[in-house]
Amino acid sequence: MQYKTQAVAKPYFVAAIGLFVGQIIFGLIMGMQYVVGDFLFPEIPFNVARMVHTNLLIVWLLFGFMGAAYYMVPEESETELYSPKLAIALFWIFLLAGAATVLGYLFVPYATLAEMTGNDLLATMGREFLEQPLPTKLGIVVVALAFLFNITMTVLKGRKTAISTVLLIGLWGLAIFFLFSFYNPHNLVKDKYYWWWVVHLWVEGVWELILGALLAFVLIKVTGVDREVIEKWLYVIITLTLVTGIIGTGHHYYWIGAPEYWQWWGSIFSALEPIPFFAMTVFAFNMVNRRRREHPNKAAVLWALGTGVMAFLGAGVWGFLHTLAPVNYYTHGSQITAAHGHMAFYGAYVMVVLTLISYAMPVLRGRAANSNKAQVVEMWSFWLMTIAMVFITLFLTAAGILQVWLQRVAEVPMSFMATQDQVALFYWMREWSGVVFFIGLVLYIVSFFIKGETRTATR
Amino acid sequence: MSGVFTKSMARNIFYGGTVFFFLVFLALTFDSHREFPKRDNSQNLTPEVIAGKKIWETRNCIGCHTLLGEGAYFAPELGNVYPRRGPDFIKAWMQAQPTGAPGRRQMPQFHLSDTELDQLVAFLKYTSEINTANWPPNIEG
Question: Which of the residues A55, A78, A289, B22 has an alpha carbon 20 to 30 A from that of A125?
Answer without folding.
Answer: B22
